[in-house]
Automatic annotation (TrEMBL):
Organism of this sequence: Halotalea alkalilenta
Top-level lineage group: Bacteria
Pfam families (alphabetical): Iso_dh
Residues recorded with modification Phosphoserine: 115
Descriptive protein name: Isocitrate dehydrogenase [NADP]
Lineage, uppermost ranks: Bacteria, Pseudomonadati, Pseudomonadota, Gammaproteobacteria, Oceanospirillales
Family stated for the protein in its record: Belongs to the isocitrate and isopropylmalate dehydrogenases family.
Record: residues binding Mg(2+): 309
Residues at the site labelled Critical for catalysis: 162, 232
Binding, D-threo-isocitrate: 115, 117, 121, 131, 155
Amino acid sequence: MAFEKIQLPAGGEKITVNADNSLNVPDEPIIPFIEGDGIGVDVTPAMKIAVDAAVAKAYGGERKIHWMEVYAGEKATTIYDADTWLPEETLRAVQEYVVSIKGPLTTPVSGGIRSLNVALRQKLDLYVCERPVRWFKGVPTPVKKPQDVDMVIFRENSEDIYAGVEWKAGSAEADKVIEFLTKEMGVTNIRFTDECGIGVKPVSKEGTQRLVRKAIQYAIDNDRESVTLVHKGNIMKFTEGAFKNWGYEVAVEAFGAEPLDGGPWHAFDNPNTGKRIVIKDVIADAMLQQVLLRPEEYDVIATLNLNGDYLSDALAAQVGGIGIAPGANRSDAVGMFEATHGTAPKYAGQDKVNPGSLILSAEMMLRYMGWTEAADLILQGVENAIAKGEVTYDFHRVMENAKLLKCSEFGEAVAANM
Ligand SMILES: NC(=O)C1=CN([C@@H]2O[C@H](COP(=O)(O)OP(=O)(O)OC[C@H]3O[C@@H](n4cnc5c(N)ncnc54)[C@H](OP(=O)(O)O)[C@@H]3O)[C@@H](O)[C@H]2O)C=CC1
Ligand SMILES: O=C(O)CCC(=O)C(=O)O
Ligand SMILES: [Mg+2]
């Protein structure tokens, strides 16, 4: 079906998906992108500069990305109409073209959609939010040994309190739910039943296990030593506690893990390398201090939606901040790559912020497409630019003798340093 507002690029083809969810990536794929609100106008063009340069250098003209702009957020309201934040054809394009990339989107202050970012993930069932956290030499950080931080967060992306099942204090709906809980479910410990907001936290076995399975498979494929299930199961027994139990269960049933020293930790041998992979769990508050004090003990992390949101920004700070923290939202085949940071409105349009987060998200995208040579060049470009002290304001303000670059100039520096 044709699109109404989305313009197809002059050339290029669709990426397609095989029955086993592997991708067929043509030499000239069409990649949809959402520019993003706020600093999206700054970081998205800088990302495209770096990616186009990496692809050109890696494949000498034999491969090329054809970018196709699709709309969401404030830009969609100007292209479609004032109430259209997430057009149906954007969802269709992202699904049909399989691999896409997006800038940050503002959560509208009013209107039906709670968060466009969350809505995109839920509508496309992008249930894995993968956020790798590693340090690049030369990046200023608040910790003494940032090189010890090398973790990959697998954040469950479709459930938990992000499902948005909640009712405003004083509404008829909230009152009705409170009445049901107190009168029919025997709940006696809602402290103040008047003017009380109510939220529901759904966490399912299927939702948990499909996420944990991906995290363990990642550990196998990438020769990682451990997968840590992060939860607050001591307090939220039937949601976060169940996440932990179902996580161990999938390790046993799908990967043959066995209890380690009587449990609860488990382990199994990586079928590719023969090395042991440990499955362990840590309670979420303790985890926030563990990753600061003993980061070398943590590798792949599998966690619920809200814990993953907190943990990914906290860990990003340890390696330089969210200006350089990348991410991917994935279903079994569809991948939408996006920065960890938001729209940083006070910097919008100033060509100032760090595009590193979106550039490194594009690096994940290229690797997902199997274009590893181009992905490696992106890493090289980022590493070399930073090592030379060519950085944006966020790093510059805490570095000595560095050269202050604009956002677009950092994109060009990545391209020049491959
Ligand atoms: N996935 C998404 O699209 C996300 C969207 N959002 C949305 O973004 C909006 C703003 O959220 P907010 O909480 O302010 O968080 P932001 O991530 O937008 O900004 C917080 C601070 O982080 C720093 N920062 C963010 N991005 C960069 C960058 N590229 N380079 C350097 N520094 C950066 C800035 O710090 P400093 O001021 O110290 O320089 C900035 O003020 C909200 O509407 C929120 O809902 C939020 C998170 C994710
Ligand atoms: O959608 C939002 O506004 C916030 C999303 C977010 O914080 C994240 O994805 O890390
Ligand atoms: Mg966040």
